[in-house]
TrEMBL record:
Domain of life (superkingdom): Bacteria
Transmembrane segments: 34-50, 57-76, 82-99
InterPro entries: DUF1304
Entry annotated with the keyword Transmembrane: yes
Keywords (A to Z) from UniProt: Membrane, Transmembrane, Transmembrane helix
Name by which UniProt lists this protein: DUF1304 domain-containing protein
One Pfam family here: DUF1304
Organism annotation: Mucilaginibacter straminoryzae
Length: 101
């Protein structure tokens, strides 16, 4: 969303936390953030394609850890809601990944 629809879908998603006049001037910053999110998603998808079970878990835990840290940081710096939406699912996925060993 940040990369391709910041001024439309992004505006709807963040309408309660950001003023509407902020979206156009921050379009490039949002695209950069979207690119980072895309790399995280690619890493998680990659973790399902790796054939070595040990590497699968290690890579998955690394990328889930990145998502969790970003969610925790976002909760402290932006909104506690980010912790619920981003960090908790990542932490649960890490727990289930570890339990699957």
């Amino acid at each position: 969303m940040e990369m391709f629809a910041w001024e439309t879908a992004g505006k709807r998603a963040f309408s309660t936390s950001l003023p509407k006049e902020l979206f156009t001037p921050t379009k490039r910053l949002a695209a950069n953030q979207g690119l980072y999110n895309g790399f995280l998603a690619a890493g998680l998808v990659w973790s399902f394609l790796i054939e070595n079970p040990e590497w699968t878990i290690n890579i998955r835990l690394f990328f889930l850890g990145c998502v969790a840290v970003a969610g925790i940081f976002g909760a402290f710096t932006a909104s506690r809601k980010i912790f619920i939406i981003q960090a908790i699912p990542a932490l649960l996925a890490m727990l289930f990944t570890l339990l699957s060993r």
